[in-house]
Specification:
Layout: H1 3-10, H2 14-36, H3 39-56, H4 66-84, H5 103-121, H6 124-135, H7 140-147, H8 151-169, H9 179-186
């Protein structure tokens, strides 16, 4: 991120912030969508986070830390939205009726559905560490800094989230649900 742009935006330069927001929007949206699993909600949360970033930009002491700071604001906004919305909302995007044309395309759709089910089984905290670590390729220490939590907490959340995702992807029951319940849901 261009530190000069951050400094100019902190001094009230609206054009500098507009450039900063346009540059930040794609990466912030990607994280919000990864956490919330809904494009419409992710767009709303991203817009709200950008407003919060503008309002609080003066509190950022080190312009070099803008990226991590903006992720923290976004994650907090995602958590607030997740508390307000139902546990599951259908994705509002319409998929083309002729999308899968070959057998392997059907398998990709099935894999995507299974992966989505896995993400929906995770708490927002677990989805957050997975998205920050794997989607953004942040180290556990960087994730801990963004979330303002201990690195050990990040490591345990990553371990648990990865284990739960594997269980869902393998078709097994999660440790929080009896095997009979998972087997019944699969029928």
């Amino acid at each position: 991120m261009d530190q000069d742009l951050v400094v100019r935006a902190q001094q009230g330069d609206r054009r500098a912030f507009e450039t900063l927001a346009l540059d930040s929007h794609p990466r912030l949206f990607k994280v919000a969508h990864g956490i919330l699993r809904n494009a419409a909600l992710a767009e709303d949360v991203t817009q709200q986070a950008l407003l919060d970033i503008w309002r609080n930009l003066g509190s950022l002491h080190d312009p070099r830390k803008y990226d991590g700071w903006s992720y923290r604001i976004l994650v907090n906004t995602c958590h607030a939205e997740a508390r307000r919305t139902p546990r599951w909302l259908p994705e509002s995007e319409v998929i083309s009726a002729d999308e899968p044309k070959a057998a392997d395309a059907f398998l990709r759709v099935d894999d995507r559905d299974q992966l989505e089910r896995g993400f929906r089984e995770l708490s927002v905290d677990h989805r957050t560490v997975l998205v920050l670590h794997y989607l953004l390729d942040l180290t556990q220490e960087q994730v801990a800094e963004v979330l303002d939590i201990p690195a050990g907490t990040v490591a345990s959340r990553l371990h648990r989230a990865t284990r739960l995702m594997r269980e869902v992807l393998d078709g097994g029951a999660t440790s929080d649900e009896p095997a009979e319940v998972a087997a019944g849901a699969a029928r």
